[in-house]
Amino acid sequence: MRVLGVESSCDETGLAVYDTGRGLLAHAVHTQVAMHAEYGGVVPELASRDHIRRITPLTRTVLAEAGLTLADLDAVAYTQGPGLAGALLVGAGFATALAAALGLPAIGVHHLEGHLLSPLLATPRPAFPFIALLVSGGHTQLMRVDGVGRYQLLGETLDDAAGEAFDKTAQLLGLGYPGGPALAALAQTGEAKRFRLPRPMLRSGDLEFSFAGLKTAVLTLSKKEGAAARADIAAGFQAAVVDVLAGKSLAALEQTGLARLVVAGGVGANRALRARLDAEAALRGYEVFYPPLELCTDNGAMIAYAGALRLQAGMAAADGRFSVRPRWDLAELAAV
Ligand code: KG4
Ligand code: ZN
Protein backbone atom coordinates (compact mmCIF):
# COMPACT_ATOMS: atom_id res chain seq x y z
CA MET A 1 0.00 0.00 0.00
CA ARG A 2 1.40 3.39 -1.02
CA VAL A 3 0.43 6.56 0.78
CA LEU A 4 1.16 10.13 -0.32
CA GLY A 5 1.79 12.36 2.72
CA VAL A 6 1.14 16.11 2.71
CA GLU A 7 2.43 18.41 5.49
CA SER A 8 1.55 22.12 5.46
CA SER A 9 0.79 23.05 9.07
CA CYS A 10 3.34 25.83 9.45
CA ASP A 11 6.29 27.03 7.36
CA GLU A 12 7.38 23.83 5.64
CA THR A 13 5.71 22.19 2.66
CA GLY A 14 6.48 18.49 2.93
CA LEU A 15 5.52 15.70 0.50
CA ALA A 16 6.42 12.02 0.68
CA VAL A 17 5.46 8.56 -0.50
CA TYR A 18 5.48 5.74 2.03
CA ASP A 19 5.07 2.11 0.96
CA THR A 20 3.94 -0.28 3.70
CA GLY A 21 6.00 -3.05 2.10
CA ARG A 22 9.13 -1.18 1.04
CA GLY A 23 9.30 1.76 3.47
CA LEU A 24 9.85 5.41 2.61
CA LEU A 25 10.17 5.74 -1.18
CA ALA A 26 10.71 9.50 -1.46
CA HIS A 27 10.33 12.70 0.49
CA ALA A 28 10.89 16.38 -0.21
CA VAL A 29 10.55 19.50 1.92
CA HIS A 30 10.46 23.14 0.96
CA THR A 31 11.18 25.40 3.91
CA GLN A 32 9.88 28.99 3.99
CA VAL A 33 12.41 30.04 6.63
CA ALA A 34 14.16 32.58 4.37
CA MET A 35 10.83 34.15 3.40
CA HIS A 36 9.71 34.69 7.01
CA ALA A 37 13.15 35.62 8.39
CA GLU A 38 12.84 39.35 7.66
CA TYR A 39 9.65 39.49 9.77
CA GLY A 40 11.23 37.62 12.70
CA GLY A 41 8.52 34.97 12.68
CA VAL A 42 6.03 33.12 10.48
CA VAL A 43 3.53 35.35 8.63
CA PRO A 44 0.46 33.09 8.25
CA GLU A 45 -0.89 34.61 5.01
CA LEU A 46 2.50 34.38 3.30
CA ALA A 47 2.84 30.79 4.53
CA SER A 48 -0.52 29.78 2.97
CA ARG A 49 0.33 31.39 -0.36
CA ASP A 50 3.70 29.70 -0.51
CA HIS A 51 2.19 26.27 0.27
CA ILE A 52 -0.12 26.78 -2.73
CA ARG A 53 2.88 27.51 -4.96
CA ARG A 54 4.94 24.52 -3.79
CA ILE A 55 2.50 21.71 -3.21
CA THR A 56 1.90 20.52 -6.80
CA PRO A 57 5.54 20.69 -7.98
CA LEU A 58 6.67 18.87 -4.83
CA THR A 59 4.08 16.14 -5.43
CA ARG A 60 5.51 15.66 -8.92
CA THR A 61 9.03 15.57 -7.48
CA VAL A 62 8.35 12.82 -4.95
CA LEU A 63 6.33 10.73 -7.41
CA ALA A 64 9.17 10.95 -9.96
CA GLU A 65 11.75 10.12 -7.30
CA ALA A 66 9.71 7.09 -6.24
CA GLY A 67 9.27 6.05 -9.89
CA LEU A 68 5.48 6.18 -9.50
CA THR A 69 2.49 7.89 -11.06
CA LEU A 70 -0.70 9.04 -9.35
CA ALA A 71 -2.32 5.77 -10.42
CA ASP A 72 0.05 3.85 -8.13
CA LEU A 73 -1.21 5.56 -4.96
CA ASP A 74 -3.61 3.88 -2.52
CA ALA A 75 -4.35 6.79 -0.16
CA VAL A 76 -3.52 10.43 0.52
CA ALA A 77 -2.71 11.52 4.09
CA TYR A 78 -2.54 15.16 5.14
CA THR A 79 -1.92 17.15 8.31
CA GLN A 80 -5.36 18.04 9.66
CA GLY A 81 -4.00 19.99 12.64
CA PRO A 82 -2.83 21.53 14.85
CA GLY A 83 -1.26 24.46 13.04
CA LEU A 84 -2.04 27.63 11.10
CA ALA A 85 -5.62 27.48 9.78
CA GLY A 86 -4.87 28.85 6.31
CA ALA A 87 -1.75 26.76 5.88
CA LEU A 88 -3.60 23.60 6.97
CA LEU A 89 -6.45 24.37 4.55
CA VAL A 90 -4.05 24.37 1.58
CA GLY A 91 -2.80 20.86 2.36
CA ALA A 92 -6.21 19.52 3.36
CA GLY A 93 -7.91 20.96 0.26
CA PHE A 94 -5.19 19.65 -2.05
CA ALA A 95 -5.08 16.19 -0.49
CA THR A 96 -8.85 15.74 -0.32
CA ALA A 97 -9.37 16.92 -3.91
CA LEU A 98 -6.60 14.67 -5.20
CA ALA A 99 -7.95 11.68 -3.28
CA ALA A 100 -11.49 12.33 -4.55
CA ALA A 101 -10.26 12.61 -8.14
CA LEU A 102 -8.38 9.31 -7.81
CA GLY A 103 -11.16 7.57 -5.87
CA LEU A 104 -8.88 7.06 -2.86
CA PRO A 105 -9.31 7.61 0.87
CA ALA A 106 -8.04 10.90 2.29
CA ILE A 107 -6.68 10.54 5.82
CA GLY A 108 -6.47 13.46 8.24
CA VAL A 109 -3.41 13.09 10.49
CA HIS A 110 -2.55 14.83 13.77
CA HIS A 111 0.77 16.64 13.28
CA LEU A 112 2.11 15.52 16.66
CA GLU A 113 1.17 11.92 15.99
CA GLY A 114 3.36 12.23 12.90
CA HIS A 115 6.29 13.47 15.01
CA LEU A 116 5.59 10.86 17.68
CA LEU A 117 5.71 7.94 15.24
CA SER A 118 8.59 9.29 13.12
CA PRO A 119 11.30 7.41 15.10
CA LEU A 120 9.65 4.22 13.80
CA LEU A 121 10.95 5.24 10.35
CA ALA A 122 14.52 4.66 11.58
CA THR A 123 16.33 1.39 12.20
CA PRO A 124 16.36 -0.03 14.78
CA ARG A 125 12.67 0.65 15.46
CA PRO A 126 11.43 1.05 19.00
CA ALA A 127 8.78 -1.47 20.08
CA PHE A 128 5.65 -0.31 21.92
CA PRO A 129 5.22 0.72 24.71
CA PHE A 130 7.63 3.66 24.99
CA ILE A 131 7.92 7.15 26.44
CA ALA A 132 7.98 9.91 23.84
CA LEU A 133 9.60 13.26 24.44
CA LEU A 134 8.00 15.62 21.92
CA VAL A 135 10.03 18.79 21.61
CA SER A 136 9.12 21.12 18.76
CA GLY A 137 8.63 24.83 18.17
CA GLY A 138 5.06 24.60 19.42
CA HIS A 139 5.09 21.69 21.90
CA THR A 140 7.00 20.18 24.78
CA GLN A 141 5.32 17.03 26.03
CA LEU A 142 6.09 13.70 27.60
CA MET A 143 3.70 10.99 26.47
CA ARG A 144 3.27 7.31 27.16
CA VAL A 145 2.73 5.51 23.84
CA ASP A 146 1.16 2.04 23.95
CA GLY A 147 0.37 1.73 20.25
CA VAL A 148 -0.95 3.66 17.25
CA GLY A 149 -3.59 6.06 18.60
CA ARG A 150 -2.94 5.05 22.21
CA TYR A 151 -1.30 8.07 23.81
CA GLN A 152 -1.34 9.26 27.39
CA LEU A 153 -0.09 12.74 28.25
CA LEU A 154 2.26 12.60 31.26
CA GLY A 155 3.34 16.23 31.36
CA GLU A 156 3.80 19.32 29.19
CA THR A 157 5.05 22.88 29.20
CA LEU A 158 3.08 25.44 31.14
CA ASP A 159 4.32 28.29 28.94
CA ASP A 160 6.89 28.33 26.12
CA ALA A 161 7.82 25.21 24.15
CA ALA A 162 11.48 24.14 24.17
CA GLY A 163 11.93 25.12 20.50
CA GLU A 164 10.22 28.44 21.16
CA ALA A 165 12.65 29.06 24.03
CA PHE A 166 15.56 28.31 21.68
CA ASP A 167 14.11 30.65 19.04
CA LYS A 168 13.36 33.51 21.44
CA THR A 169 16.74 33.22 23.15
CA ALA A 170 18.46 33.18 19.76
CA GLN A 171 16.59 36.36 18.87
CA LEU A 172 17.73 37.99 22.13
CA LEU A 173 21.31 37.11 21.24
CA GLY A 174 20.88 38.57 17.74
CA LEU A 175 20.99 35.24 15.90
CA GLY A 176 17.90 35.79 13.71
CA TYR A 177 14.92 33.54 13.11
CA PRO A 178 14.43 30.63 13.61
CA GLY A 179 17.39 30.53 15.89
CA GLY A 180 17.42 26.99 17.34
CA PRO A 181 20.13 25.54 15.10
CA ALA A 182 22.15 28.81 15.14
CA LEU A 183 21.99 28.97 18.94
CA ALA A 184 23.07 25.33 19.19
CA ALA A 185 26.04 26.03 16.89
CA LEU A 186 27.08 29.08 18.93
CA ALA A 187 26.71 27.11 22.18
CA GLN A 188 29.23 24.63 20.81
CA THR A 189 31.90 27.34 20.98
CA GLY A 190 30.98 28.61 24.47
CA GLU A 191 31.72 27.67 28.07
CA ALA A 192 28.51 26.26 29.59
CA LYS A 193 29.74 26.49 33.17
CA ARG A 194 30.56 30.22 33.14
CA PHE A 195 26.96 31.27 33.81
CA ARG A 196 24.63 29.17 35.91
CA LEU A 197 21.14 29.65 34.50
CA PRO A 198 18.01 28.36 36.27
CA ARG A 199 16.67 24.84 35.62
CA PRO A 200 12.94 25.67 35.80
CA MET A 201 10.80 23.00 37.48
CA LEU A 202 13.55 20.39 37.39
CA ARG A 203 12.79 19.50 40.99
CA SER A 204 9.02 20.08 40.84
CA GLY A 205 8.33 16.38 41.35
CA ASP A 206 5.98 16.19 38.35
CA LEU A 207 6.55 15.97 34.60
CA GLU A 208 5.56 19.54 33.72
CA PHE A 209 7.95 22.05 32.11
CA SER A 210 8.39 25.81 32.06
CA PHE A 211 10.80 27.76 29.87
CA ALA A 212 9.60 31.37 29.99
CA GLY A 213 11.71 32.24 33.04
CA LEU A 214 14.86 30.97 31.38
CA LYS A 215 14.39 33.41 28.52
CA THR A 216 14.07 36.29 31.02
CA ALA A 217 17.25 35.14 32.80
CA VAL A 218 19.08 35.21 29.45
CA LEU A 219 17.77 38.71 28.74
CA THR A 220 19.03 40.03 32.09
CA LEU A 221 22.37 38.29 31.69
CA SER A 222 23.00 39.44 28.13
CA LYS A 223 22.20 43.07 29.06
CA LYS A 224 24.72 42.86 31.88
CA GLU A 225 27.48 40.96 30.09
CA GLY A 226 27.19 42.34 26.56
CA ALA A 227 27.88 40.76 23.17
CA ALA A 228 31.29 39.37 24.11
CA ALA A 229 29.66 36.80 26.40
CA ARG A 230 27.19 35.57 23.77
CA ALA A 231 28.70 32.14 23.17
CA ASP A 232 28.96 31.41 26.91
CA ILE A 233 25.36 32.54 27.48
CA ALA A 234 24.20 30.33 24.58
CA ALA A 235 26.09 27.38 26.04
CA GLY A 236 24.66 28.05 29.53
CA PHE A 237 21.14 28.27 28.12
CA GLN A 238 21.47 25.06 26.13
CA ALA A 239 22.89 23.23 29.17
CA ALA A 240 19.90 24.34 31.25
CA VAL A 241 17.35 23.18 28.65
CA VAL A 242 19.17 19.88 28.17
CA ASP A 243 19.30 19.32 31.95
CA VAL A 244 15.54 19.84 32.28
CA LEU A 245 14.55 17.78 29.21
CA ALA A 246 16.85 14.91 30.20
CA GLY A 247 15.89 15.04 33.88
CA LYS A 248 12.15 14.89 33.17
CA SER A 249 12.53 12.18 30.51
CA LEU A 250 14.41 9.98 32.96
CA ALA A 251 11.79 10.66 35.63
CA ALA A 252 9.06 9.59 33.17
CA LEU A 253 10.89 6.32 32.46
CA GLU A 254 11.35 5.71 36.16
CA GLN A 255 7.73 6.49 37.06
CA THR A 256 6.25 4.27 34.35
CA GLY A 257 8.81 1.47 34.60
CA LEU A 258 9.36 1.62 30.82
CA ALA A 259 12.84 1.32 29.34
CA ARG A 260 12.48 2.91 25.90
CA LEU A 261 12.56 6.63 25.15
CA VAL A 262 11.69 8.10 21.77
CA VAL A 263 12.67 11.69 20.99
CA ALA A 264 10.70 13.57 18.33
CA GLY A 265 10.27 17.12 17.02
CA GLY A 266 12.71 19.78 15.84
CA VAL A 267 14.63 20.14 19.12
CA GLY A 268 15.33 16.40 18.86
CA ALA A 269 17.94 17.40 16.27
CA ASN A 270 19.96 19.08 19.04
CA ARG A 271 23.27 17.28 19.42
CA ALA A 272 23.87 18.24 23.05
CA LEU A 273 20.46 16.82 23.98
CA ARG A 274 21.17 13.60 22.09
CA ALA A 275 24.61 13.17 23.66
CA ARG A 276 23.19 13.70 27.13
CA LEU A 277 20.25 11.31 26.68
CA ASP A 278 22.50 8.64 25.15
CA ALA A 279 24.96 8.91 28.05
CA GLU A 280 22.25 8.76 30.75
CA ALA A 281 20.52 5.85 29.01
CA ALA A 282 23.76 3.88 28.75
CA LEU A 283 24.30 4.34 32.49
CA ARG A 284 20.82 3.17 33.41
CA GLY A 285 20.14 0.48 30.82
CA TYR A 286 17.55 2.45 28.85
CA GLU A 287 17.32 2.67 25.06
CA VAL A 288 16.86 5.98 23.22
CA PHE A 289 15.49 6.24 19.67
CA TYR A 290 15.51 9.21 17.30
CA PRO A 291 14.00 9.82 13.88
CA PRO A 292 16.49 10.12 11.02
CA LEU A 293 17.97 13.63 11.40
CA GLU A 294 16.23 15.07 8.33
CA LEU A 295 12.86 13.84 9.66
CA CYS A 296 13.21 15.64 13.02
CA THR A 297 11.72 18.88 11.72
CA ASP A 298 8.42 19.09 9.84
CA ASN A 299 8.13 16.77 6.84
CA GLY A 300 5.65 14.81 4.74
CA ALA A 301 7.20 11.41 5.50
CA MET A 302 5.89 11.29 9.05
CA ILE A 303 2.41 12.21 7.81
CA ALA A 304 2.46 9.54 5.09
CA TYR A 305 3.67 7.02 7.66
CA ALA A 306 1.11 7.89 10.35
CA GLY A 307 -1.60 7.84 7.66
CA ALA A 308 -0.50 4.38 6.50
CA LEU A 309 -0.56 3.02 10.06
CA ARG A 310 -4.03 4.48 10.64
CA LEU A 311 -5.30 3.04 7.36
CA GLN A 312 -3.88 -0.40 8.19
CA ALA A 313 -5.48 -0.24 11.64
CA GLY A 314 -8.86 0.63 10.11
CA MET A 315 -8.79 4.02 11.80
CA ALA A 316 -9.12 6.28 8.78
CA ALA A 317 -12.44 7.89 7.83
CA ALA A 318 -12.89 8.35 4.10
CA ASP A 319 -16.17 10.17 3.50
CA GLY A 320 -14.71 12.83 1.17
CA ARG A 321 -15.42 15.66 3.59
CA PHE A 322 -12.60 17.51 5.26
CA SER A 323 -12.03 19.93 8.05
CA VAL A 324 -8.90 21.37 9.59
CA ARG A 325 -8.29 21.57 13.32
CA PRO A 326 -5.90 24.43 14.08
CA ARG A 327 -6.20 23.64 17.80
CA TRP A 328 -6.31 19.94 18.46
CA ASP A 329 -5.28 18.09 21.59
CA LEU A 330 -3.44 14.83 20.85
CA ALA A 331 -5.21 13.21 23.80
CA GLU A 332 -8.50 13.52 21.85
CA LEU A 333 -7.31 11.10 19.16
CA ALA A 334 -9.42 7.96 18.92
CA ALA A 335 -7.81 4.78 20.22
CA VAL A 336 -7.61 1.55 18.20
O1 KG4 B 1 9.13 20.15 14.77
P1 KG4 B 1 9.51 21.44 14.16
O2 KG4 B 1 10.17 21.43 12.80
O3 KG4 B 1 8.30 22.39 13.97
C1 KG4 B 1 7.24 22.47 14.83
O4 KG4 B 1 6.29 21.68 14.62
O5 KG4 B 1 7.34 23.31 15.72
O6 KG4 B 1 10.46 22.18 15.22
C2 KG4 B 1 11.04 23.41 14.95
C3 KG4 B 1 11.76 23.87 16.19
C4 KG4 B 1 12.23 25.33 16.10
O7 KG4 B 1 11.88 25.98 17.29
C5 KG4 B 1 13.74 25.18 15.94
O8 KG4 B 1 14.45 26.29 16.44
C6 KG4 B 1 14.02 23.94 16.75
O9 KG4 B 1 12.94 23.08 16.44
N1 KG4 B 1 15.30 23.31 16.38
C7 KG4 B 1 16.35 23.19 17.22
C8 KG4 B 1 17.38 22.56 16.50
N2 KG4 B 1 16.93 22.31 15.24
C9 KG4 B 1 15.64 22.77 15.19
N3 KG4 B 1 16.49 23.56 18.51
C10 KG4 B 1 17.67 23.29 19.10
N4 KG4 B 1 18.71 22.70 18.47
C11 KG4 B 1 18.62 22.31 17.19
N5 KG4 B 1 19.66 21.71 16.58
ZN1 ZN C 1 6.32 19.92 13.89
> What is the total tally of β strands?
10
For the biggest β-sheet, the strand order reads: 3-2-1-4-5
Give unreliable regions as ranges. none
Number of helices: 10
Number of domains: 2
CATH architecture of the largest domain: 2-Layer Sandwich
This entry's quaternary arrangement is single chain
Mean pLDDT: 95
Tell me the structural class. alpha/beta
Descriptive notes:
The two termini are 20 Å apart. The longest helix is centred in the C-terminal third of the chain and has 27 residues, at 230-256. This protein folds into two domains: 2-116 and 295-332, ATPase, nucleotide binding domain (Nucleotidyltransferase, domain 5, 2-Layer Sandwich), CATH 3.30.420; 127-290, Nucleotidyltransferase, domain 5, CATH 3.30.420.40. It is globular. The protein is an alpha/beta fold. The strands form two sheets. It has a five-stranded mixed sheet, with helices on both faces. A five-stranded mixed sheet has the order 8-7-6-9-10, with helices on both faces. The chain contains ten helices and ten strands. A hairpin with a 4-residue loop joins β1 and β2. It has helices spanning 33-37, 44-66, 85-102, 111-117, 162-172, 180-188, 212-225, 230-256, 271-284, 301-312, and strands at 2-7, 12-19, 23-31, 75-81, 106-110, 130-135, 140-147, 150-156, 260-264, 287-289. The structure holds 5'-O-[(R)-(carboxyoxy)(hydroxy)phosphoryl]adenosine and zinc ion (ZN). 5'-O-[(R)-(carboxyoxy)(hydroxy)phosphoryl]adenosine is lined by residues 10, 136-138, 163, 166-167, 178, 180-181, 184, 265-267, 269-270, 297-298. Zinc ion is lined by residues 111, 115, 136, 265, 298.
